[in-house]
Design goal:
The protein is of the alpha/beta class. Helix 4 runs parallel beside helix 5 and helix 7 (about 160-170) packs across helix 9 (about 275-290). Strand 14 and strand 15 form a beta hairpin. It is elongated. The chain folds into two domains: about 5-135, Udp-n-acetylmuramoylalanyl-d-glutamate--2,6- Diaminopimelate Ligase, Chain: A, domain 1 (3-Layer(aba) Sandwich), CATH 3.40.1390; about 135-295, 3-Layer(aba) Sandwich (Rossmann fold), CATH 3.40.50.300. It starts with a strand and ends with a helix. It has helices at about 5-15, 40-45, 60-65, 70-80, 100-105, 120-135, 160-170, 215-220, 275-290, 295-314; strands at about 5, 20, 30, 35, 55-60, 90, 110-115, 135-140, 145, 150-155, 175-180, 180-190, 190-195, 205, 210-215, 225-230, 230-235, 250-255, 260-270. The strands form five sheets. It has a six-stranded mixed β-sheet with strand order 11-9-10-17-19-18. A five-stranded mixed β-sheet has the order 2-7-6-5-4. The protein has a four-stranded antiparallel β-sheet with strand order 8-12-13-16, with no helix packed on it. It is built from ten helices and 19 strands. InterPro entries: HPr(Ser)_kin/Pase, Hpr_kin/Pase_C, Hpr_kin/Pase_Hpr_N, P-loop_NTPase, Ser_kin/Pase_Hpr-like_N_sf. This is HPr kinase/phosphorylase. It comes from Ligilactobacillus faecis. Homohexamer. Its cofactor is Mg(2+).
Amino acid sequence: MENAVSVRELVLETSNLEVYSGMQYLDERMVTTEDISRPGLELTGYFDYYPEERIQLFGMTEISYGNKMSKEDRKKIMERLCGKDTPCFVVSRYLVVPAEMKEAADEHHIPILRSKLPTTRVSAKLTDYLSGRLAPKKSLHGVLMDIYGLGVLITGDSGVGKSETALDLIKRGHRLIADDRVEVHQQDEQTLVGEAPKILRHLLEIRGVGIIDVMNLFGAGAVRAKTDISVIIHLENWEKDKQFDRLGNGEQKELIFDVEIPKISIPVKVGRNMAIIIEAAAMNYRAKTMGYDATKAFERNLNALIDENSKQKK
């Protein structure tokens, strides 16, 4: 199913969950929304709006309330909680799972998972995981690097030297996230996260050499699974008549999903060390985010010099 996560994936990819019952149904049940439901009103019998497609999370409050109900009422409520689209039940704090829940879940082929974590932490971890897995994804052509802790997406036409530049950056101690294809999803209103497709993870293609395994050649410290995208650096072939920003005051942005990402265009020319230039661009961008803008400092110094010269002429 497109844009869905199986309960098996949920268990395997989140370390805080274990299967209590329904192991045979893990592939059958799918999670399609990042929203988590704590069925409080439902335990009182109110089912006019029951989001059955959500993971149903039981904490101390829900289990304690259920334990005060009669066995017959508890059985009826658990039966109604088992919707045809309910992916699973999750019980926090290793609380005792009510027998009626297990009976109803087994009958309707719904897994029950448990966690030792408090309910709020379980909810936060599940939401964080599902928001990443279920978010719309876009595949971009480029190379994604971690440079001094910044996610730098290097773009440009095919053959401009993106992968070769990435290799130089790796040798200088920076980390590769993805080469050629970058899978991007929007984590929130201000954050884009990029990672490599599984088939390309840790791999880098160098023309004339072929495909190399960066992790195998340079070690685990040379790769990273994913990173937030902070800035785009676009490589363009140098043209004599084309104007490029020389002072750094021509700010560009690129819209990906609903997020605007700063963009820096750098001309590629024989003899230019692109790895060092990109490294410097990343450091300069970081300095700007920390409040220091070299371009503005230059403009202030220039204006001060003009004022000083004007006074001397008078």
